[in-house]
Write a structure and sequence with these properties.
The complex is a heterodimer of chains A (165) and B (430).
Chain A (H helix, E strand, L loop, with lengths): L1 H25 L2 H20 L2 H21 L3 H26 L2 E2 L2 H28 L6 H24 L1
Helix pairs in contact in A: 1-2, 1-3, 1-4, 2-3, 3-4, 4-5
Chain B lengths: L2 H18 L3 H6 L1 H13 L6 E7 L3 E2 L5 E9 L4 E8 L5 E5 L3 E6 L4 E10 L2 E13 L6 E14 L20 E20 L11 H6 L5 E9 L2 E7 L14 H18 L3 E7 L3 E7 L1 H14 L24 E5 L6 H10 L3 E7 L1 H6 L7 H23 L3 E5 L5 H8 L10 H4 L1
Classes of the chains: A mainly alpha (165), B alpha/beta (430).
């Protein structure tokens, strides 16, 4: 549990710093302050066990990417920030579940598998993302159309999945 | 909240923004989120086939006695990477050792035994469901289910052992017991003298009486002792409950008294029934012996004070359930409304004993009696209660005005040691 808590706060600090530094370097002080406030709010929410606070912070940090890209800040900062945000959100969930469960049976094994899965996801995600960033494809109307259709398809899948749930 | 929905929404918004602004960088930055969501969807649990069996070490216990509850969870489906199992405890149970929720993983065909210990105050506790939530390691795709695992626990009232409680109902049953039957025959107490009949034991001959008559021999007769029908009525109306600051409950005292009395009557071989009168009628049909004792204690374990428009007053007491001319024992703090009904019952031929836990003394124990207002209120309440009890005594009803600080056995010995008055129904008196 201590490992998860440390990982949560470390990743939260990392995502706050990376987004914040990115905006500061770019000269967007207002966004940097907003970002640091958001990080502080998430930490407080976690400490006070406000699940909605964590959810809101995660959503807003993800939207920070869009703002960052819009403002033209360094992509590397944003990439590190999004990875750290994912880790923070994942750790927050794990900690909440561990607190809900009075006892964890086979805790070491569970933690190891969880961290391995998360690490794998991050490595693949960051790798693919870096690859995509270095891929030079003309983002034509045709590509946008294909992706748009894919999005509609994905949305219909998500809706049907949620209905099943 | 559903994590799939949250992640999908965020990804969707970002992708729409990327497409709307034709920005490939934003699209590339969404990839880690997409991979995270995808991993959850790929590794998430497809189906859950769990079987849960509950074992409880004891079905009937005394208050505060630890009871071990174990849940055996078997996974009959595919491997579940992460599973949260939460036993839904009935309210009022206190977990002493162990936990009631566990986080683990379950391989296909694997079984897991989860054990915890609980203790509780008097009551009936019904275990029903176990909540399970299976997910992948990242907890993105979750499947929840409520599995049925029934179990029950009776925490019976602690039964205080009383000495013999003297009762004298008008009617008795045919079996030998300890209650004077108002009939001559074999017994202990002198009953009368009658002329000798062939077969009478010679040692019963009353030589003095026989000496006064020529050619006639008289023998002593003794009063037969038999068992009787006893109906114990516990008042479970809301008004019978008084709670003081420390959490002590007058109703609990009543329950314990009813249990002790039923035990005492059953031990003497009587046929005892129990009626819980309050929220509803809970009638334990009269019976003998240890099985009946269990039935009565189980019924008392369930007893809770409650309200009902129909049973607000004692006048709806179902007299047909109570055998005619039997002994009735009412355990109730009493209310002024009850007096008429009790006198009426007495007039119908029932021998009536009222064990009345004193609500005035009980409530006063937790108050500052130096306060003049409280002292005056207590005095008025005391006068009202004394008058009510006096009226009942005048009607020939045995009353125990029980200060619950005094053990019931001692209170009964003091208050009910006088000879039981004879019961004469109204018709007979007329």
């Amino acid at each position: 549990m201590k490992l998860q808590v440390s990982l949560f706060y470390t990743s939260l600090a990392l995502c706050t710093l990376s987004f914040g530094v990115a905006f500061l370097v770019h000269g967007s002080l207002a966004f940097a302050v907003l970002n640091f406030s958001l990080g502080a709010f998430w930490a407080i929410s976690h400490w006070r066990e406000w699940s909605w606070g964590g959810l809101l912070s995660f959503g807003l940090f993800c939207l920070m990417i869009a703002f960052g890209v819009w403002r033209g800040v360094g992509v590397l900062w944003l990439l590190v920030g999004i990875a750290a945000t994912i880790v923070a959100w994942d750790m927050a969930r794990w900690i909440a579940q561990a607190k809900r469960a009075g006892r964890i049976i086979g805790g070491d094994k569970l933690i190891r598998h969880h961290l391995l899965r998360l690490g794998g996801v991050l490595v693949i995600g960051l790798g693919l993302s870096t690859l995509a960033l270095n891929l030079k494809l003309a983002f034509t109307f045709g590509w946008a159309l294909i992706l748009g259709l894919l999005m509609i398809l994905a949305l219909s899948r998500v809706i049907s999945f949620l209905r099943e749930q | 909240m559903n994590r799939v929905l949250i992640l999908s929404s965020i990804i969707y918004v970002l992708v729409i923004l990327a497409l709307a602004t034709l920005n490939g960088v934003l699209l590339a930055l969404v990839v880690p989120l997409l991979i995270y969501l995808g991993a959850g969807l790929v590794f998430g649990p497809e189906e859950m086939a769990l079987h849960v069996e509950r074992r409880i070490s004891h079905e009937r216990v005394l208050p505060s006695v630890p009871v071990e509850v174990s849940l055996v969870v078997t996974n009959n489906g595919p491997r579940l990477e992460s599973i949260l199992i939460e036993d839904q405890l009935p309210g009022g149970l206190e977990v002493i050792t162990g936990e009631v929720s566990w986080l683990t993983s379950l391989d296909s065909g694997e079984s897991l035994e989860l054990v915890y210990t609980v203790a509780a105050s008097r009551g009936y506790y019904r275990f029903r469901d176990v909540f399970v939530e299976a997910a992948d390691h990242l907890g993105i795709r979750q499947k929840r289910a409520v599995l049925s695992a029934e179990g029950r626990l009776f925490v019976q009232p602690d039964v205080q052992r009383l000495g013999r409680v003297d009762i004298r109902p008008r009617g008795t049953r045919v079996y030998a017991g300890f209650i004077p039957a108002r009939q001559g025959g074999p017994g202990v107490e002198f009953f009368g003298v009658r002329e000798y009949q062939h077969g009478d034991p010679l040692r019963w001959i009353n030589w003095r009486a026989s000496a006064r008559h020529r050619q006639r021999v008289f023998i002593n007769e003794f009063e037969q002792e038999r068992v009787a029908d006893v109906g114990v009525i516990l008042d479970t109306r809301r008004r019978s409950e008084v709670r003081v600051d420390g959490g002590a409950s007058l109703f609990e005292c009543g329950v314990h008294a009813a249990a002790a009395l039923a035990e005492s009557f059953l031990k003497d071989g009587n046929r005892v029934g129990l009626l819980l009168y309050g929220t509803q009628l809970d009638w334990t049909f009269p019976g003998y012996g240890k099985v009946q004792r269990e039935r009565i204690l189980q019924s008392l374990a369930r007893a809770q004070p409650g309200e009902s428009m129909i049973f607000e007053k004692l006048e709806n007491l179902p007299k047909r359930l109570l055998p005619a001319n039997s002994q009735l024992v009412l355990v109730s703090p009493l209310h002024s409304d009850d007096v008429e009904v009790l006198i009426h019952l007495r007039a119908r031929g029932y021998a009536l004993m009222v064990i009345s836990p004193d609500p005035v003394a009980f409530e006063l124990a937790g108050m500052d009696t130096r306060d003049k207002t409280i002292a005056l209120a207590a005095r008025l309440a005391r006068i009202e209660r004394t008058l009510m009890l006096h009226k009942l005594r005048q009607a020939g009803i045995q009353i125990l005005d029980w200060d619950v600080e005094v053990p019931l056995g001692a209170a009964i010995r003091v208050a009910l040691s006088r000879p039981v008055p004879q019961v004469h129904p109204v018709e007979a008196l007329g």
